Amino acid sequence: MRILGQKNSINVRKVLWTCAEVGLSVDREDWGGQTRPTSDPSFLVLNPKGLVPVLVDGDLVLTESNTICRSVASRQRRGDLFPEEAAGRASVEAWMDWQIAELNTAWRAAFMGLVRKDPRFADQDAQKASVRDWNAAMTLLDRRLSATGAFVCGESFTLADIVLALSTNRWKSTPMERPDLPAVADWMGRMSDREGFHSYCRNGQA
To answer: Which secondary structure element, helix H or strand E, spans residue 185, and what is its range?
Structure first.
């Protein structure tokens, strides 16, 4: 099994953390960023969208990080991470979808402008709006964690915690004003004994 993508990519790291949780050894190949370009024809054969990560497992080729995480957990029959029963699975998927559709959209201008220094996101008004929306989304997550008292989907750690912890780490690492969110802080602390958390989330990379 191979994972194609550079190690500093947040989406590659969520897949690597998932693989660590299930005890699955994978070979990672550098693609994207300052490494091999994803516009290379050999890469585009695997993913015409030109994005990382890509999972290659024999004849199986998967793209989209959250889909890969779900596939890996299902392959290893890890119902604790990705429940087999419909209601539990839907809850995990809903929060994973919220992460990639709503939370990622909120932080894009702030993170790309303030951290990556991307000139396309240099507009300060857009950055301020992004900070506001990002903090609002994180406050919503804090309320959710206050309600569960443990993890995003309830008492047990799931894939939803992996993808949202990485986004939270990015939020904490970005130089901006942010509210004090005690439930989020407690939740991050509850994951501090997990090897994948240290290797792929709180590892000095945003």
So the answer is: helix 182-190
Low-confidence ranges of the chain (pLDDT < 50): none
**CA pair distance 202, 67, nearest whole angstrom:** 23
Give the domain extent around 175: 86-194
pLDDT digits (tens, 9 = 90+) for 145-156: 999 999 999 999
**Closest C-alpha among 193, 205, 197, 190 to residue 162:** 197
| Alpha-carbon gap, residue 123 to 206, rounded angstroms | 21
Q: What is the largest CA-CA distance in the chain?
A: 48
- For residue 60, tell me if it sits in a domain: yes
Distance, in Å, from the CA atom of 157 to the CA atom of 52, rounded to the nearest integer, reads: 25
pTM above 0.85, yes or no: yes
